[in-house]
Amino acid sequence: MSGLKLSNLSKCFGKAEVIRGVDLEIEDGEFVVFVGPSGCGKSTLLRMISGLEDITGGDLWIGDRRMNEVQAARRGVAMVFQSYALYPHLTVKQNMGFGLKVRKEKPAEIARRVEDAARTLQLGSLLDRYPRELSGGQRQRVAIGRAIVGHPDVFLFDEPLSNLDAELRVHMRAEIAALHKRLRNTMVYVTHDQIEAMTLADRIVVLRDGRIEQVGSPRQLYSRPDNIFVAQFIGSPKMNICAASDLAGPLSRAGVDTSGAVQVGLRPEHLRLVPEQQGLMTGQVVISEYTGSGSLLHVEVAGVGTMLVLSEGQEGPRPDDTVYLAIDPGNVHMFDADGLARRAEDAGVSASGAMVAER
Amino acid sequence: MVALNDTEATARRNSVPWLTLRRREAIEGWLFVSPTLIGFLIFFLGPLIAVVFYSLSEWNLLSQRATYVGLDNYADALTANRDFWHVIRNSIFFAAGLVPLNMALALALAIALCRPGPGVVFFRTVFFAPVVTSAVAWAIVWRFLLQGEAGAVNQLLAHVGIDGPNWLREPNWAMVAVIVTRVIKMVGLNMILYIAALQAIPRDYEQAARLEGASGWQIFRMVTWPLLAPTTLIIMVITTIGSFKVFDHIYLMTGGGPENGTLVLAYYIYEQAFEFFDIGYASALAMIMFVIVLALTIVQLLLRQKGSA
Ligand SMILES: Nc1ncnc2c1ncn2[C@@H]1O[C@H](COP(=O)(O)OP(=O)(O)OP(=O)(O)O)[C@@H](O)[C@H]1O
Ligand SMILES: [Mg+2]
User: Fold this and answer.
1) How many domains are there within chain B?
2) Cellular component per GO (chain B) (predicted)?
3) Which residues pair with residue A294 across a beta bridge?
4) Which of B207, B211, B226 is nearest residue A89 as measured by Cβ atoms?
5) Is there a contact between A220 and A230 (Cβ–Cβ < 8 Å)?
6) Where are the domains of chain A?
């Protein structure tokens, strides 16, 4: 088992620089998720770790070995592809044993390890089927099984669940989490589903344009984003971003010091509907989206713009209703002119305030 | 509902009661396929039936008189001391040389040229161009290149110290020469088929295999080759059929010679019919060839069904 170290890693395709100086340390046994918008370089970075893509600049360490020039097969990594990449002409058993077979492992040993992995993933009854005879979830499990059989140090997943329907995705997500708990391997997981990232990760790495925007635990990224990009990328529905000057009045009434802030971020779940006399802002509902447990309101606030507000309960306001909003003072995010989070010395205070407000 | 109303309306409007919507559609359908159908009857089925009749008669084109002789022509071909078995042997030899050579070369070229890269489009064009080149021009150029002493091929061989044979004048070498020149002409077609098949194999397979430690050869043997199997089967059958039907190439390169060394079935039929005017015998040969090609076609269809099942 081993951790990973990426230092100043970069990648060019011809003239296009796709990964630009990535520094990252991944602990042994950690579950790290790369997220970011499409085309930001998540897959490329993962493939550089795997050895399927060569490294233009910087160093890659797995365990205490520098791996830049090491062949993919000798890096001790296994990868689960989005397409699963199961060979259609081989049975489940043969697919899972493929890697051992090409490495000239003894048939008895191959059979033993395939059966081990099959037991772990409850694939026992499927071993003699062909991939085309399996459901999406079963194929996914076989793909993971194939990775397990080789006893790799590091597992790499490239959007492994994106071909599954929503229900199965949730189920397989839990299975992958359980697998990590049992195997305790280092796992690097690429997704652009931030719920997947939040639920699975020990730490999330947010990428944009080939650079790391922020690294942190899901909780850190949610409650203390370093910049507007991360603030808006993590959390659903998206955080409201408004000009600080437009919100100066309501915020000072809420007791929030906005000095130095150029933009202010408020999560929809941190805006509350209140009776008129407690309201800090007044707005009009434009759209109301029923979500089951509540409604997502698009509220037009004069002089500020449209804000998303999460209202709980079944009897939410209707379009054209006038609503009054209160701000959770502990959960106001402030950003400077460059979009970077402003956290003064009192950041600690407001953070603990947030904790209190959460209770 | 709409369809139902339509039917009723049609029925009421129609003065001819038997012309229901269903019958009308059937008639329209037959009208649409009739041009092809008529063409098929006149230009394929008609001649085929005619050939069957010819093959059962003794008919000399010059005397213009036909007499029924039963299966004599077939017996003549299969048992009498005519050239038939020599010709069949030549045809098999031609196929046995051409098919593996063509396929191996096509696959090698396809593997080299299936991914985009510098010069790939250029080389694909180079290898495909002969396929669409006139057979006549191709043969003329090669006859020129393959001349005895002065031919470019032998001069090249002389450079490396090999004393080349007079390619088209010696029976065995002539067969080698027509096979090789035919392969070079037609290999581009199979190359394109293989390229298409290779491009249809997801790259993830190769990458997954590479990550698991498979060498290039192992990936080819254990992943690529089995996935190409359906294509390989089809290519094998159509190339074999093509090689049994080869005519123009032989006609233009050697005229079946020397000493009947390249006399293959299709050319033999032509010779019997239009040089010796023995239409009955030639028709019997044509029927035999038809059966061979039909059998190969059925094999191909069966293989295709098995492949897709
Ligand atoms: N082989 C390649 N040649 C040239 N450019 C490439 C190649 N592979 C990827 N790129 C470019 O690199 C950038 C990052 O691609 P990558 O596949 O890593 O994105 P991603 O973050 O995984 O996106 P997605 O979420 O859509 O999978 C993209 O702009 C892409 O166009
Ligand atoms: Mg990707």
Assistant:
1) 2
2) plasma membrane
3) A312
4) B226
5) no
6) 4-223, 238-356
Beta-bridged to residue B100, according to DSSP, are none
Angle between helices A136-149 and A166-183 (to 10 degrees): 20
Chain B residues with CB under 8 Å of A83 CB are 202, 204
Mutate to test the interface with B, among A102, A144, A146, A188 (most CBs of B within 10 A): A102
pLDDT(B2) > 50 = no
Mean model confidence pLDDT for chain A = 90
**pLDDT mean over A86-107:** 94
The chain-wide mean pLDDT, for chain B, equals 87
A152 prior amide bond cis, ω within 30: no
Q: Which CATH superfamily is domain A238-356 in?
A: Nucleic acid-binding proteins (2.40.50.140)
Query: Cβ neighbours of residue B193 under 8 Å, at least 6 residues apart?
Result: B106, B231, B234, B235
Strand order in the sheet with A57-62: A16-26, A4-13, A57-62, A65-66
B215 contacts on A by Cβ (under 8 Å):
102
A85–B223 CB contact, under 8 Å: no
Whole-structure pTM value: 0.80
Query: Are the beta carbons of B301 and B292 closer than 8 angstroms?
Result: no
Domain at A4-223, CATH homologous superfamily: P-loop containing nucleotide triphosphate hydrolases (3.40.50.300)
**B66 domain residue, yes or no:** no
Structure tokens at A36: 């970011």
Residue for token pair 């592809």: A81
* B34 CB-near residues (< 8 Å, 6+ apart): none
As a whole number, mean pLDDT of residues A104-123 equals 92
Q: Do the Cβ atoms of B94 and B179 come closer than 8 Å?
A: yes
Contact B227 A88 (CB under 8 A): yes
Contacts of B223 in chain A (CB under 8 A): 87
Do B181 and B295 belong together in one domain?
A: yes
pLDDT at position B308? 60
* Nearest ligand atom owner, CA of A45: 1
Instruction: For residue B243, give its domain range.
Output: 72-308
Structure tokens at A311: 């209202």
* Cα–Cα distance, B130 to B182 (Å, whole number): 10
For residue B230, tell me if it sits in a domain: yes
Q: Does residue B61 sit within a domain?
A: no
Cα B254 to Cα B178: distance, rounded to the nearest angstrom: 8
Mean pLDDT of B147-170: 85
One domain, residues B172 and B211: yes
How far apart are alpha carbons A196 and A160 in whole angstroms? Answer: 11
